[in-house]
Model the fold of this input.
Amino acid sequence: MPSEKQPNRRLCHLVLCSAQFLDVFLGLTIILPIISESLNPSPSEAQWILSAYNLTFGGLLLLFGRLTDLFGKKKGVVFGMGWLTITSIYCGFAPSVKHLIIGRALQGIGAAANIPSAVGAITDLFSDPAERNIALSQFGAASPLGFISGLFISGTIGQAAGWRAVFFYKAYEGNLWDQAAKIDYFGALVSTASLIMFIYAISAGSIDGWASAEILSTLILSIIGMVVFVWWEQKAPVPLIPKTFFNPQTTLIIIMTFLVFFAFNGFAIFANLSLLNVYKYSTVMTAVHLIPMMVVGFLTASATGYLATRYPNPLPFLIFGHCSMIVAAILFSFVRASITYWALAFPALCTIVLGFDVVFNFFNILLITSVSEEHRSFAGGMLNTVVQLGSGIGIAVEFTVADTITGLSKNVEDISDGYRATFWMDIGVFFVSLMLGVAFRKFWSLTAPPVSQVSENVELGDKTSSELLVSS
Done:
């Protein structure tokens, strides 16, 4: 790449990282008590203010990953950023809880367009593997930076100016028919509907219980839909999931990503709740005590790309990352109101993000190098779909476990017992993921497949998908 284009390339990369930053920025969990004082939602409605975003985000990632590969990365990023801006303004003006829940669901659409588009665009910007690994790790670093910044800034703005100002602040920060004929519309419809129903069922089940006929029927229908989707993908002339996508390494990454996010997001939620309900910190002080996560996460994610370039064997880093997360969960399982934050909670928060950012950034880099160029946006969508499924199922299961143990008790020790059970569950899930990585270690490789191995070079109008990738 010519040197005079270098500044523009770096500026584009910064914009793409901002897409990741904005998708996790809002920090809604920290301002939910402020929203509750204003709109007075029921417990179920309050949970849906959080979950509605994940419903559309997780349900549409696969579809947007495929659309991005067909229509171009720039269109996906521009649409995603613009949509997030518009829907954030809508949320800011929401007159009722129902309007806010609708707005949150609409926000998830923009986020689903952002992530796969940004991942694919980064791989286009940086063709050199070493530069690409560093760029992807910096993209990953934007996530912890956005998450913790969102908690701190949202908490501060929410207390000073009200919760609506938080959404306004987020808004401030923001030949097709030939290709359209090649979309697997039936596969897109079935997969999107099934994922949305599944995420809805596990989210509602953790709130209202699992005995409801509505929840059980929705869950069963979603599973049937997924089976139909898998069957259809074997028959479709141009399937939503490219036939060359799955290989031993991508399959292993998908399974381990599900397990890691099942445990990590549960840990993050219950660590946050521990600061609020065990240590009795305010929303702003909770965000302040989570700042070490942002610092360690940002530094670790930024360094991962350099490590992946310098040391091509990922297994030692995956072992280190999993062991770090296990240690963090063990430390937090001993947290009590009588034990100072600095003794256990602080090192646990630092250690969890140290391990998580090493593992997830290596997963991201490994997945991108495991697939052909024209499917890298789809790979980003697939990975983040698994992230949403793992997170959603993990949070639902862990809330069920914690509520079963705690019951209706408001006693701090009883609440701690419920949280403690979830941390021990996290330890077990992290360990299973670690054992899978070690048992199938022969599959780990940071070498990209040669172009000659690409068996799908789908005709799109008068261009191949590879030509469209370049022209986008």
